[in-house]
Design goal:
The structure holds 3 protein chains of 3 kinds. Chain B has 12 helices and 2 strands; from the N terminus they run ααββαααααααααα. Chain B is mostly helical. In chain C, helix 3 runs parallel beside helix 6. The chains are: A mainly alpha, B mainly alpha, C alpha/beta. Chains in contact: A-B, A-C, B-C.
């Protein structure tokens, strides 16, 4: 009898443990969100979006240049990564049996594991050093390398969701395979592919490390891709480690904007992706 | 207009796709090559002693990687020690204990953690976690476990423990989402077989879910390790950035990634830059190998 | 119906063989099909009927490890000849599949005309005209004429299958292959498709694989009986179903097979 109670007790303790673990992660999550919300929203004002930074000591100013800079660099990076990524996704889904396909798959896996700071150094070495200047372009290259594996993987998965009999139906109409791939498979999946791209963009938008010595950052508005350019994450970092209270407040405001931006994109993409997978694609 | 046979047209597309794919593979090789090239002066100057030298002194232009290797490994291992049980338990909580509708939300929330930018973790760490460690956690550990060298010395809030804590939160989603997909693969009849023997739920989980999943869980842990090793911003903001090797978890330290983030932009001697690139190469190789290792476990797992 | 056997031969298979890897799925089939007839292929499941059908428009070779041998003559010309472009073959021998498979995220109209459009025909009036003609032939026009721009996948299963028939007809192939086109449909949708096949027959030659013997008896002019990759018997459906020559056929038809 005692043994039975012991077993039941162990069973109960295990349940408690799993519950505690769940709380151990969810509580920090809520705390971060709450912290960013409270600290960020209270530091937020219209100026934050419309003003450039003020010199040290003067109160006020905003991060207009960093918000626009982030959008600029991320979109430039996406413009590089998306065509290459989708092309590789097509290759992986339509020619999955080939040897190169397997090598590419492994490459993608390994690439997604490269620390982002290392990618930053790579971009520094191949772009900043030869051009002799920190530049938004170098930052975009670094971010595109971060986005690439995500785009390749999601494109592959999404195109593989298109059932094989759809491909056969296209071929049976007397269409060459390349037309079936481009105008039936790919065109039919465009909206789904977009969600994969949003996911990649949301990941890249939050990256700081690869931008530290590529796009570098500045304190004014710039749209020149050959010049250093501010970005939200780097600006937050600079302000967060500064000793000035007002800058720290602005870092919170920046974190708030960044979080809202990223979590919205991320949740949206996830929501759509689960819907697609639930419906088995089509 | 020349009319190409459909096979020829198809071959054209195939070669375009193939070429772009080769470009991506070449990119990975290019990253390795460029890093080696940039690190070469430091490799020539330091060779393998670079790995075992404790001194990192940009002023005298002498460089050794040991403090950073130490800092990277210790923070990552402590983070894994915390994150592994938590991740496995969360995965079980989601797959086995929660009803489907709630489990989806909890799973989404856990994955949400992975979407939070590292800089935000850092910010939160600096303004909340570090003071918490200094005022609450460190004194608590000292009074109860102070006899261990791990928990001696003063705590300034930032240091190995704080960095490891933030890392552990950051890698839980990686480990738990892989664990979840492994646990979901366990066929229902195996669970039922275990229940039929009169098992409690805990015994069923041990018997039917955990024991066949050991290799899968270990690959998840290795993948989590890969993430922890390379994590930069949050750690940089929380570890204190001093290249010391100390037995105390309260002590500040530096990781390979954090020293790169801190010094790369200001490095001015060629050897300093090259040494940082050498560190980048090492970090790349470590994460590369751990990822490769994790994939091979996954492969043998999915085959068996 | 003596005139059926006098009709012109449009498609013939000569010693046609097919493999999946090492598995010999179709074993030396020789048969001919006459213009503007419906030809049913029946037999137990897994007997190679579908594979055989898929060899007739060379879609079988799209599967990894698939192989064929022998000849298929379309109006006297071997479609397996090296000089023949496979795309032209499939344009002239259309196919309807077991599961209705309209193209995803494509409107009803686009589904019908996609074959023409991707061949380079872009004149809107031509496309609209073809769409109407084909949808009428597929007995779908009246149901969809007001919503040509809604998604093809939004239709019911039976409507989707008729859409697929219209799509196949749009490229105007003299021969239409159908691989158990009604097996995924309910009896009412099935009846509709059987009905329209009688109309289609006036212009096209149909070869249909079916697991439903009543269906074969109802709609077909000729029937072939397949077992394990061999064709046991081929002849006028009237003969096969009332007076089969082979014992195996008789057993199968009377339900004593296997």
């Amino acid at each position: 009898m005692n043994y039975r109670i012991y077993r039941k007790f162990k069973n109960f303790m295990f349940l408690v443990l799993t519950l505690v673990s769940a709380l151990a992660v969810l509580i920090p999550l809520f705390m971060i969100i709450q912290f960013v919300l409270v600290q960020g929203a209270s530091s937020l004002s219209l100026d934050f979006f419309t003003q450039l930074p003020k010199p040290v000591g003067e109160v006020g100013g905003g991060m207009k240049h960093a918000i626009l800079g982030t959008i600029y660099i991320v979109l430039l990076g996406a413009a590089i990564a998306i065509p290459i990524g989708v092309t590789c996704g097509i290759y992986l889904s339509e020619f999955s049996k080939s040897k190169l396909s397997k090598t590419l798959k492994m490459t993608v896996d390994l690439m997604s594991g490269i620390p982002s700071i290392v990618i930053g150094i790579f971009a520094y070495l191949v772009v900043v050093v030869p051009l002799k200047s920190f530049s938004a372009f170098a930052g975009a290259i670094a971010l595109s390398i971060i986005m690439l594996p995500i785009i390749i993987k999601t494109s592959e998965e999404i195109l593989k969701l298109v059932p094989n009999h759809i491909r056969e139906a296209g071929l049976a109409l007397g269409l060459p395979r390349w037309k079936v791939i481009l105008f039936i498979i790919l065109k039919g999946s465009v909206s789904n592919l977009l969600t994969g791209m949003i996911l990649a963009i949301s990941r890249a938008a939050g990256e700081t490390a690869p931008l530290l010595f590529t796009a570098f950052g500045n304190m004014y508005l710039s749209y020149n891709m050959n010049e250093p350019m501010a970005s939200l994450p780097v600006q937050i970092y600079t302000y967060a480690i500064s000793p000035y209270k007002d800058w720290q407040r602005q870092a919170w405001a920046g974190a708030f904007v960044l979080m809202v931006l990223i979590l919205t994109m991320n949740l949206f993409a996830r929501f759509i992706l689960t819907k697609i997978k639930d419906k088995k694609g089509i | 207009m020349i009319k190409l046979k459909s096979k020829t047209q198809d071959a054209l597309l195939f070669y375009v796709l193939r070429t772009i794919s080769l470009v991506v593979i070449a990119l990975l090789l290019g990253i390795i090559f460029v890093l080696i090239q940039a690190a070469w002066p430091a490799i020539k100057a330091g060779g393998l002693t670079f790995l075992f030298s404790k001194e990192w002194n940009p002023v005298e232009d002498r460089y050794g990687a040991l403090p950073f290797i130490f800092g990277t490994l210790v923070t990552s291992l402590v983070a894994l020690l915390i994150a592994t049980p938590v991740s496995v338990l969360i995965a079980l909580f989601i797959t086995e204990y929660l009803p489907k509708s709630i489990s989806r939300i909890v799973a989404l929330l856990v994955e949400m953690v992975a979407a939070i930018p590292s800089i935000v973790f850092g910010l939160w760490g600096v303004f909340y976690l570090a003071p918490f460690v200094k005022k609450v956690l460190a004194p608590l550990l000292k009074t109860h476990l102070g006899f261990l060298p791990l928990f001696q010395g003063p705590s300034f809030g930032i240091g190995i423990l704080t960095a490891a804590l933030i890392l552990s939160i950051m890698i839980v989603p990686t480990i738990s989402s892989i664990c979840r997909s492994i646990f979901e693969l366990v066929p229902a009849h195996q669970k039922e077989a275990s229940y039929a023997l009169g098992s409690t739920k805990y015994e069923m989980i041990k018997l039917a879910i955990l024991s066949p999943s050991v290799s899968g869980i270990s690959s998840a842990v290795v993948l989590g390790l890969g993430r922890a090793l390379g994590e930069t911003m949050a750690v940089t903001m929380l570890i204190g950035n001093s290249p010391v090797i100390s037995s105390s978890l309260f002590s500040p330290a530096a990781t390979m990634a954090s020293v790169m983030a801190n010094e790369y932009a200001d490095a001015n001697t060629p050897l300093h830059i090259s040494s940082l690139c050498y560190l980048a190469l090492l970090l790349f190789l470590i994460t590369f190998l751990s990822n490769l290792f994790a994939r091979t476990i996954v492969k043998s797992f999915s085959k068996g | 119906m003596p005139n059926l056997n006098d009709a012109k031969v449009i498609l013939e298979a000569k010693k046609l063989e097919a493999w999946f890897g090492d598995f010999h799925a179709v074993k030396g089939i020789t048969v001919d099909y006459r213009e503007k007839t419906i030809n049913a292929i029946i037999g137990p499941s897994g007997c190679g009927k579908s594979t055989y059908l898929r060899c007739l428009n060379r879609i079988h070779e799209e599967i990894e490890g698939a192989r064929t041998a022998g000849e298929v003559l379309l109006e006297g010309k071997n479609i397996y000849d090296k000089k023949v472009d496979v795309v032209d073959v499939r344009r002239r021998i259309g196919m309807v599949f077991q599961k209705p498979n309209p193209f995803p995220s494509m409107s009803i109209l686009d589904n019908v005309v996609i074959g023409l459009r991707l061949q380079g025909i872009s004149k809107r009036s031509t496309l609209l005209e073809t769409a109407e003609v084909c949808l009428r032939k597929a007995a779908l026009w009246d149901e969809v004429k007001d919503k040509l721009n809604s998604l093809g996948t939004s239709l019911s299963g039976g409507q989707q299958q008729r859409l697929c028939i219209a799509r196949a007809l749009a490229v105007n192939p003299p021969v239409l292959l159908m691989d158990e086109p009604t097996s995924a449909l309910d009896p009412i949708a099935t009846a509709k498709i059987e009905e329209l096949m009688n109309e289609i027959k006036k212009e096209y030659t149909v070869i249909i694989v079916t697991h439903n013997m009543q269906q074969a008896a109802r709609i077909s002019d000729f029937t072939s009986f397949f077992v394990y990759g061999n064709m046991i018997e081929h002849g006028l459906s009237a003969d096969i179903f009332t007076n089969p020559k082979e014992k195996q056929t008789e057993d199968y038809i009377s339900g004593r097979f296997g």
